Amino acid sequence: MDYKTRLTSSPDILLGKPVIKNTRIAVDLILERLGNGMSIEDILEATPSIEREDILACISYSSDVISRESLLAS
């Protein structure tokens, strides 16, 4: 999935955090909800202004970002 068609970032919106286009819904909020056990259907019901593809774009974006990082051993 090309998340760039669904997500955007601007210094004027949430201090530049990545958000779903045409919303103020941050990618990290969606990921947090998924991580806390909400299903995609639960999120869509709670946030009717977004679509399933928006949530998938958030997941795809996070995968892309994480694939470029490494975990430092402590």
From TrEMBL:
Pfam families (alphabetical): DUF433
Protein name as catalogued: DUF433 domain-containing protein
The organism's taxonomic lineage, starting at the top: Bacteria, Pseudomonadati, Spirochaetota, Spirochaetia, Leptospirales
InterPro entries: DUF433 (IPR007367), Homeodomain-like_sf (IPR009057), WH-like_DNA-bd_sf (IPR036388)
